[in-house]
Amino acid sequence: LSSLPLQILLYVNGVYYIFYFLATLAMIIYKSQVFSYPDDLLAPDLTVLFLMAILEVPRSYLGFKGNLTEAEGPLGLSLGLTVGSVVLCVYLLLWQTYVLWADVLLNAVLLAGYGLESGLKVTAIAAFVS
To answer: Which residues cross the membrane (predicted)?
Structure first.
């Protein structure tokens, strides 16, 4: 009952997230050097990015584990962590101090991946329960 499309998407999202993290970190450093980035607003943006990276590890692990073992518990926890990651992604998309077009593009692709992944997780959980 394991979902091959979900497993592939979990892998692709994991690889993309590494690129996303490095690109977003580089853009925050770039914006802090080029623009007049207020010091009190730099810390929250970096904190959100690093918190998102910390959430990504258990989110991906639980997704892989839940899908491969056909267990709805870890998959449900992964789905819950995905909601947290989406909230942090929306923060970086809408409420970050400076939002560049590259930020919009990177966050849009990540949100699309999270959306597809969530749909497949719900489908897999429904298959595991029945």
So the answer is: 6-30, 74-94, 106-129
Q: Which domain range does residue 57 map to?
A: 4-27+39-129
| 125, burial (CB in 10 Å: exposed 0-12, middle 13-18, buried 19+) | buried
Residue 9 has pLDDT above 90, yes or no: yes
pLDDT for the residue 1: 85
Report yes or no on 33 lying in a domain. no
Q: Is residue 15 part of a domain?
A: yes
Model confidence pLDDT, tens digit, residues 37-96: 888 999 999 999 999 999 999 999 999 999 999 999 999 999 999 999 999 999 999 999
Q: What is the pLDDT of residue 39?
A: 81
Question: Hey, how many other C-beta atoms are within 10 angstroms of the C-beta on 112?
Answer: 10
Q: Would 122 be classed as within a structural domain?
A: yes
Other beta carbons less than 10 A from residue 19's beta carbon: 12
Give how far the C-alpha of residue 85 lies from the chain's centroid of Cα atoms, to the nearest Å.
5
For the question of whether the overall pTM of this predicted structure is more than 0.85, the answer is yes
Closest C-alpha among 129, 128, 130 to residue 67: 128
Is 84 inside a domain boundary?
Answer: yes
